[in-house]
Write a structure and sequence with these properties.
The complex is a heterodimer of chains A (about 300) and B (about 850). Chain A has about 300 residues and is α/β, with parallel strands linked by helices. Chain A contains 13 helices and eleven strands. In chain A, strands 1-11-10-4-9-8-7 form a seven-stranded mixed sheet, sandwiched between helices. A four-stranded antiparallel sheet of chain A has the order 3-2-5-6, covered by helices on one side. Chain A is globular and about 60 Å long. In chain B, helix 11 packs antiparallel against helix 12 and helix 16 runs antiparallel to helix 19. The chains are: A alpha/beta (about 300), B alpha+beta (about 850).
Amino acid sequence: MAHSTTTPQPPSMHAAAPRSDDSPPQDRLLAVAAGRDVPSEVHEQVLAETPVLEIDRFNLWYGSKQALHGITMPIPNNQVTALIGPSGCGKSTLLRSVNRLNDLVQNVRITGDMRLNGDSIYDPRMDVIELRKRMGMVFQKPNPFPMSIYENVVYALRIDGESNRGVLDEVCELSLRGAALWDEVKDRLHESALGLSGGQQQRLCIARAIAAEPEVLLLDEPCSALDPIATGKVEDLIQELRGRYSVLMVTHNMQQASRTSDYTAFMYLGRLIEYGPTTDIFTKPMLRETEAYVTGRFG
Amino acid sequence: MHSRATFTGRERRRKTDPWVHAGDVLARGLITIGGIGTIVAVLAVGFFLFAVAAPLFQTARIRPTRVTPLVHAVERPACLGADESGLVAWVFDPTEGGRVRILSVADGTPLGERSAVDCGLANVTAIRLLPSGLHAACGFADGSLHTGRLGLESSFVSESDLPPGLASMRPGDVRAAGESIFLRNQGGQFASVEFVAEFPGEPSRPLSTPIIDIDLALLGDGPLVAALDAEGRVRLESVSSRRNLLTDEIVISTSGATIEPTSDFATRPRFVRISELGDQLFLIAATGTASRHSIRSVEDPEWMESFDVAPGTGEVAAVERMYGGNAFAFADSTGTIRIFFATRGGTAPAADGLAMVAAKTFPAVGGAVTALSASPRSRLLAVAEASGGVRLVQTTTGNTVIETDRRQLLAGPARQVLIAPRENTLLAGNGSSLAAWEFNPGYPDVSLRSLFGRVWYENYSDPVHAWETTGHESFEPKFGLVPLIFGTIKATIYSMLFATPIALLAAIYSSQFLHPRWKARIKPTIEMMASLPSVVLGFVAGLVFAPIIEQAVMQVITGIYAVPLTLVAAAHLWQLLPPGLRSRLGGWRFAAIGLIALPAGLALSRLAAPWLEQVLFQGDIATWLDGRGGSGLGGWVLALLPLAGLSAVMIVNRVITPWLRRRSGGWSHQQTTLASLATFLVGVAVAVALAFAAAMFLDALRLDTRGGLFGTYIQRNALIVAIGMSFAIIPLVFTIADDALSSVPDHLRSASLGAGATPWQTAVRVIVPAAASGLFSAVMIGLGRAVGETMIVLMAAGNTPLMNWNLFNGFQTLSAAIATELPEAARGSAHYRVLFLSALVLFAMTFVVNTVAEIVRQRFRRRAHDL
């Protein structure tokens, strides 16, 4: 499996200490900003994991503007992987490319591929509806449907035509318990989901996503619209999901990434800069650029 | 002043310019004025409509003017008349050989006197006056008859032609000047009034005993007289005068017949009446037994039927032919008044198919009726009672319009009553005095009950809701708003049934599925349709579509079902295309619908129509709709198909889809699509089978859609209106619905698609519920347009105020009635005010629709607020 871009670059250093002070800390970032290709530093621990999703030399253009440049990264199975990076670095675009929601956007063009448990996502014969049924997605803003809490949770089953009340009830309870929301809403399952608080709504969206038994759970900045208390609850939930679900999460919040994820990928202007175990990325990154970002010196 | 540090080197003024403040104040003021002005304008329109319509419901006013003593004591035959303005009256006093006395109504001043001999009224025993043209028929003691002119003839005089000193008269004044009488009427015009008594030629003498009653009808070629003598013999005499074209001589010819008393009568007839058209003759005995004779041929009267006009113990006290000449009022000694007229059909019709019915009964109020008099210009009837009271009743609505105060009255009951020609003066007299009242009947032919309830109009076999405002001079106006309200509702319902599904589905399609490149062209095109003037739409619908559709009824009906089915089938076939080809052609999906699927659907309906017509309607739908032959099966199938379709969808969803789901694991796209195409075809088959089964069941119960939903095909009908109106409604509903659907937050759509829903599932389960408030207001705005739409229904609905749900029949809406009739209605007339009332009803309807819409929309909005 390729772990660096195809452009000829000197081999990356693995598990190395930050570079000495003589080289400017942001030279890779400046190179990126200048439009040049730089290699991605991918730690070995990542490559050692069983991948659930493999992103393979993935490029994406919005019209003539390229938004993703040769992203190659495996997403480990049953682990939480966080995507961090400054605004506009392509985190969300990458995430939305995984379940092909970008298909809806006009003038999008892609090259490269992604594979979900070995099945090519961008194969023309791939039924995009079936593909999306294998993934769950939670968005930046809580977006429960304008229906009851119960119907929100069992939405995926409803669209599959499931009408067995027993099955629906069971899935609803298990999913809400899984999303740590059951105790708060069990008495008002048939009231509108729009009456819940923001944090509850977001956990409801997570319950809705896990009710579909996804192979990968995609979280797009799930806490950015929430207050600190709600954020804490959602983070706790993500902690609980780890080990049972493969989670790919976009976040702006470095603390959140460090608290909740197993692996962290740092992206910058559409490129993957460094990708490795979260503890390494936050404590001893290979690149000074990464260190500069995670310590808040830029971005 | 210390200088501040600056970034740009300039000092910002901290103080707001007074002009900016002034602009703020001005803008606020203008907006307030505009807002309040709008509310005031709407209220003012409502108030204006109300103000014009309100007088309809004012009670009539009456004011006694004077009681004038008269000297004669004999009660019959006395005769009472008044001039056009109601200011001058004349009475025939039969005492001392007889005299005609002319007097002022206002103060009783004598204005002149003529002897009976001068007037040709010596020994008169029966007089009948027709107010129009002063026509009169008199019967005499020796059994002779004479027709001529009798009464006060007025002619307008210009102010300069008045005798000196009379120009100073005030409105309502009457003066005698020499032989002439001058007056100034309430409108300020001067007129001279002259007593006319002209009986040309010699009286005929067909009978030999005194004439006790006489009646007169004016036919095209001369008067028709019926006279009844003391022995019960009736003489019918028609006088026709023809001008000889060569000699210019007037040839008068008389024809007639004598009807001998029949055994029908226990007692001799007391009254004789003929209808205004001169085709019916009525003989009424005092006991109440009456007979009707057809006198279409004057020489050969035929007995038709006998009926009882005073059931019970009463004796007939007075008989009066109502204005219009079709209805007769019979009053008996108990005080009850019954209105009879001939109706067609009924339980036991006479040989001519007619039967007399007692349509209305006015119960006794003040004892026996002593005199009746019909108004010469409306269906008002003056009733004098033994108690001394006089009241006015309206025989269309059955209302009592006025009752005079019983205490200040004539000494004793009135023997004659008279409503003056302009319905402004009521006269009542007996042997000793003459009383006069000024009155204003208001709008007696309109009441809330007659506007919104069933009314038994003359010659109808039942009370009905009817709207009929124009006809010949003396026709009975029918101000029933219910047919118009019904027409408005019918137009709205059929138009909305036709337009709403198309508009909403189009909006869902364009907002969720249509490629933006196509949408950018198609949406403005549809919106441009909204700017088509409705008169053009009405013209196209009524004059272009209507004749074409009349020739192709079956094709149109087939198309309504065939085109949507073809589109769905085409969608399934599209899914069967190889995936590569499908994604390459993706942008042309819409073109494929328009260029292939739609024409295919039309072609299918054209091909299938004759076959369906054969199967369902014995080969000719027009004959079937007329109710000639065929069973009710076809109509039920057509009517039940939509319902059967819905049931089929439910059955498929409940039974077939879950079954397929259990089996379809691991099927390829191709297989799944084939399965869903098969499911669709099964669904269609199930729907057709269900519709047929239900239709057969209903047909076996002898139920038929004809007479209900379907019926005789009229060229301009509800279907045409629905099609024409859809051109106006669809763009409106489409645009608003499309905006509402497009403005559903994208994150909801993403969430649903991300959960693996298809775009259609997303649209139906998430987008449409989220946009419900917008969709609802779109539909309600369409509804508001449909309710108030005028030109399209005016031109395409046939304007027949009928009340049936027949899709193929016409109707008239409130708006169309206002548009067509208001320009012709006399200002201030009942018709005019009723039209304003219908405008008020329309205003109220749209107000209610919009208010309900807004309340519901707000509720939806609150729900959707948190999206």
